[in-house]
Amino acid sequence: MAEKYNQVRAMLAITKASLRAILRSPSAIVFSIFFPLIFILVFGFIGSGGGPNYKVYLSSGSDTANPIIDSLKLLQNIRFVEYSNDEDLQSDLIKGRITGTLSIEKLVSINNANKYIVHFNSTSASADKISSFIPLLENTINKINKSVYQDKESIARIEPEVKQVRKYRTIDFILPGQLGFSLLSSGVFGVAFLFFSLRQQLVLKRFYATPISRSYIVLGEGLSRVIFQLMTAVIIIGIGYFAFRFTLINGWLTFIEIMILSFIALLVFMGFGFIISGLATNESSIPPFANIITLPQFLLAGTFFSIDAFPKWLQPISYAMPLTYFNDAMRKISFEGAHLSDCGLQLAVLGGWGLIVYTIAIKTFKWE
Prior knowledge:
Number of domains: 2
Number of helices: 13
Number of strands: 5
Largest sheet: 5 strands, mixed
């Protein structure tokens, strides 16, 4: 009796052959591993820089009718934020999401000159911002002194208080972005070129001569891309952790959750690649299509810079991109101690994008 054809075994054979081809491809290695590693090395050696933008909470009960607040509000790199409850405020302080809180206390008028005490409270999670924010605050007060209170004592004195918490390093921001960069590049460029090449070289047509079904052909080729890219994710995270002390707040549990998140995001990004492989009429048309999808996300999805640094009119575009939600979930899990169950919004948006892209991919994908 003839042995029944095993679809799974055939799929795994395709996966093995495809994975070997990927590992022998210089472009796959460069875009998936070396490009992200170069950025990680550069930012890792730079140190703990956080940029010149500051998010500050003005405490309730603080005096607001004073020249100090008026002057700070004129500065473009300071943004005053609001909170509906103290729990969220304290959480963001501990996680370094805001620079700190300001409370300005008005003293009794002396010699017709108002005096103030500026209370600034923060945590060591924002140490990189504090080191430049306090001098900025002092400089603002000095300017007021020179312009309004030239012959009098300083209008205010600053009383800073910084609580020690876990330090937020540059690598904790940049590595999630570079992992997202790698996943998106591989998912879009890798899949688009792979399936277009298989179709153009009539490899898919030759597969038709075998008993393997079409779905297993796609699964086999896709699985090889997933295995390769998750291997690169392990390399990127490993170098970040051992060389630059990238934060894995809950150790192995955090690492596993990051890998699951990377797998989900990669499946979504691969959908874009399937769409492009179906739309492309020749190999030279793939890069323009792929860059339309990837380049805006590389620049605007919080890969290299915080979205808060962008103009307000641009931020809604950033928050419409799937890579934004992968980056956000990565940083929540790795540094803040969140779990996948706490990233419901991010997973929902990625899932929504996945539903959209695969609906389109099914209609545009071509076998011949």
